[in-house]
Each structure stands twice: as C-alpha cells, then as structure tokens.
User: What shape does this take?
Amino acid sequence: MDVSVIICTYNRSESLKRGLRSIGEMSIPGNVEYEILVVDNNSTDNTKDVVMEFVDYYGSKCKYVF
Assistant: This one.
C-alpha cells in the first residue's frame, strides 16, 4: 500500500460526504495503491450510510471502521 487516507469522524456526515467526493475527484496515478479508512467514533447521524455509498463506489479501497 502506497497511501492510506484515514478519516476519523463523529456526527459530521455532510462534511464527510464532501471529503469523500473530493478524494474521488483527485487524479491518482494508476501505479499508486491506496485505501480509504473511515473511522466512526460512535456517530448517531447517518455517517455509516454515507460511507456505505462510497464503499459501493470505491469497492474494497474504502473501508468503514466503527
């Protein structure tokens, strides 16, 4: 793994959504291996739902940790 993007969050689902979209819009060279880890610190909003949308988009590159 070349790059790990680790995002820790608590009840900031809208900010998280914008951040994950921004990562998706980045130009990443094809030879760079990366992963996105979202660490949810016991959120009570729809954080998990937001992350799961991006898991569908990024596949195994995006992981949700509660």
